Every structure is written in structure tokens, then in C-alpha cells.
Amino acid sequence: MTQLEFVGGFIDANAEKITALAREIWGYAELAYEEHRSSAALIRVLEESGFSVETGIAGIPTAFRASWSSGSGKPVAAFLGEYDALDALSQEAGRPEKEPVCDGAPGHGCGHNLLGVGSLAAALAVKEYLAAEGKDGTIVYFGCPAEEGAGSKQFIARAGCFDDVDFAYTWHPGTENTVSGKGCVAIMGANFTFDGVASHAGGAPHLGRSALDAAELMNVGVNYLREHMIDEARVHYAYSDAGGTAPNVVPAHAVIKYEVRAPKVAQVQELFARVVNIAKGAALMTETVMNYEVTMAFSDYTANRALAELVSACLEEVGAPKWSEEDYALAASFLRTYSRNMLRSIREDLTEQYGPERAEALLERPLAGTVRPFDPSERRYESGSTDVGDVGYAVPTVNLSVATACIGNVGHSWQNTAFSNSPIGDKGLLTAAKVLALAALRTMEDPSRIERAKRELFAKNGGHYTCPLPDYVEPPIGKY
């Protein structure tokens, strides 16, 4: 029996249990740092399967490390799992009309219920293979909460939890089947607090010092900064405290949240320092006091190319999910829920990538049925961010994408929540688990590739992981 036959057979034989666990976590739909039931469900299955579990790692109650060893325990392969949901994205499972299960409630609009269980299924399959064949090695599953919040993997990496790991694999639900050569940009976020002097806005305005004015002037300054930063950078903001609702009171307190993104973590740090200087200037102009607190930061992610080639080959060997006519029909019905402008944009993107005839065929049957091979020449960055990037600075890491939704699907949407508990999502989950398991086994048997991957990592990080967060920043449990 080949390795693919073994892991594929194990996952197929346990498919009902695996997908039931994903549906269980989909039903919990817990927000960042609140994933108590979701993490408990994953831990329950891991312990039942013989894994030893350490909970509360890196000071995060819903983070954990589960491990199982055979023989010498070397090499050490890690799988990363996520299981947090997004706010206000509740939606009926598999339904192509907007219908929340509960208005305003969270939902798995990024498919992390599939992600966490798919990585877990891969860990179980590899464990069963090593036990059956009497092979050496250690399998580690990292439960990583709050990817949609302030993250957890950078705290886990800072705590040294990846120090004994040889490589790490994970995946993400998507619209295509590929190991992408594109990276994900770094990000840093902070709360900027301005404190001034309250006063009667009509009777004694000259005695007041407006914290809200300071926040507004900070925004003006950052708007001018946007002309003088690299094209790939982004700056986002939101008021978390605008100083009250009474216009006849000079606001004495205001808080504004800022996030900056750029391809490399060093570029983010430089851009963030410029934003801080603007905040200082706004405080000076308004005679207020400014303080800021860094709340989150992710390093940039790029796939370890020595490992990406192998993972991509395993994806091609496993193949894309096998879609049925019912799957294609469901995907097409979801695609029709998008606005006319969005559909026009999707059609234009597909036409540019595949040509007009192929684009029209994909719009009629909008599910990725092929594998796009890894392209080592790809150097561009997606504009999104992930804390997987911090794992990639600590240990050789690859993040795989497998289709769980229709082509053109928009992430962080009610449509994505529906896909995350549907036959389409289930098939993507099972495919990803097979690829991850096969890739881990192939990597464990190839020490020269592991060494190449580690040399590549050394060139990237200089021999050690440096957390982009200041040392004083702790996981913002109950604060984010």
C-alpha cells in the first residue's frame, strides 16, 4: 500500500467523523480568544487518538499543543489549526440566500472550522501511518486561535514553541487548488489615545483642548502620508471612542485604532513609525496628550520554496476535489447572489486569466476542478495578512490553498459562511487533509530537503525568529 493509499484510505474511512467535527465547530462560531468549545472539541479528538495535549500555551487559554511520538521522535512535523469565527456573519448552512441563523451573531466566514479540522485529520493520518509502519517521528498539532483578531502564532513563536519543530504545514479554504508563490503582507496595529481638557463648547470653548480634534488631525496627516508610501502599503483606521455624543462638550478623550500593512515586516515598522510621528504632531497642534499601545503585528508570509515544490507535487498527486453536478449547481446559485458590479469584476478577472471562452465555462460551472502548480518565479504579495507569516520566520512553513467555495467567492462574507458547512466545503476539507498528510510523510523521509528548507529559512531570518511585537505586548485576552 502506497502512502497516498494509506492516508487517503484512513481519511475516507473517517470522513463522516471528520466532517461532523467541522460542522460542530461551525455551529459554535466563537470569536477571537473565545474559542473555548471549539478548542475543547479538537482536544477531545486528539486525546482520544493518543496525543498528549498541553493547553494554554503562550498565555492564551484557547491555544494548545498536541503531540505524539514514535521511536526516536525525529523528525518533528507540525500542523497548524485555526478555529475562530468572524463577527456578524451568521448564515444558514449551504443556503444561497442570505438567511442568518441568528441576526448579528458570528459565523465562519473564513472557513476556519474546515481549516482546523483538516489539519487535525492530516495529523491523525500521519500518526496512524507511523504507528503502522514503525517509523520514527513526532507529530505536533498546534491549536492557534484568534487569527482574525490580534493573532496567536506570533505569541506562540515568541514563547519558543516551534524551536524543536523541523517544518510546519497548514492550509486555508479558498477558491482554487494551489500552493501559491504569492506572499501575504506584514501588518501592525495600535490604539492611539488622545487626552485633552473638557469644557463648555459654547460658554468657554477657549478653555477646552479637544481630543477629538487631535484624532481628526491625525487622520488628515495620515491622508497626506498616503501619497508618500510604497504602492503596496495600506493604512486603515477606525474610531473606537470618539469622545462622547454631546456636541456642547469639548471631548477630553478619544481613541482611534490604526493598522498599517506592507510587504515586509521592516517596511511596516518604518511606516508605523511615520504614523506615530503624525499622531505626535496632532497632539502638539491641539495641546493634548497622545499615548499609543501596539495591539497586534504579523510578519509577512512567503512559502518556503524547498518545501512548496514538494507540497505542490503532492497536491497534483491527490488531485482537485471531485465535484458532482449538484456541487456545480450549488456553486452557480451562490455566484448569482453577488451584485452586478461584482459579477462584472469576477468575469473580467477570469477573462484576463483564462481567456473569454474558458471564463464563460467557469462561470457556468464555477468550481476549481484542476490544480495550479507552484510557480517559483512568483514574487508578488496579496494585500491580506496572516499570523502564519510568523511561523514562517520561526520554522520552514508552507500554507496550501484548496477550493471550498465557488470561483469568484468573496471571503469574509455570508456566502463563505454557508460554504463552510456544505458538501463543497466538506470535499475541500478532505482533499486538503490528504495533501497535508502525504506531504508531511514525504518530507519526513527526505532529510536533505529538510536541510535545504532550513538553509532557506536561515537566509530569511538570520538564524532566529524576531517577533514584530514589542516585548511588553501580551495576548489581548478580553481586550481586542
Largest sheet: 6 strands, mixed
CATH superfamily of the largest domain, by name, is Zn peptidases
Mean pLDDT: 97
Fraction of residues in helix: 40-55%
Total domain modules: 2
Tell me, what is the CATH class of the largest domain?
Alpha Beta
- The parts where pLDDT drops under 50 for at least 5 residues are none
* Count of DSSP H/I helices: 15
Describe this structure in words.
The structure is a single chain. The chain is an alpha/beta fold and 480 residues long. The chain has 2 domains: 3-184 and 300-323 and 367-461, Zn peptidases (Aminopeptidase, 3-Layer(aba) Sandwich), CATH 3.40.630; 186-297, Alpha-Beta Plaits (2-Layer Sandwich). It has 15 helices and 14 strands. The chain has helices at 3-13, 15-28, 36-48, 112-133, 153-158, 211-225, 265-286, 305-318, 325-335, 340-354, 356-364, 388-394, 414-419, 423-444, 447-461; strands at 52-55, 64-70, 76-81, 137-143, 167-174, 177-178, 183-184, 186-195, 234-241, 253-262, 289-298, 371-372, 381-382, 397-403. The chain starts with a helix and ends in a 19-residue tail after the last helix. The mean pLDDT is 97.
Keyword list:
480 residues; Aminopeptidase; Alpha-Beta Plaits; four-stranded antiparallel β-sheet
Give a concise summary.
This protein is an alpha/beta fold and 480 residues long. The chain has helices at residues 3-13, 15-28, 36-48, 112-133, 153-158, 211-225, 265-286, 305-318, 325-335, 340-354, 356-364, 388-394, 414-419, 423-444, 447-461, and strands at 52-55, 64-70, 76-81, 137-143, 167-174, 177-178, 183-184, 186-195, 234-241, 253-262, 289-298, 371-372, 381-382, 397-403. Strand 1 (52-55) and strand 2 form a beta hairpin.
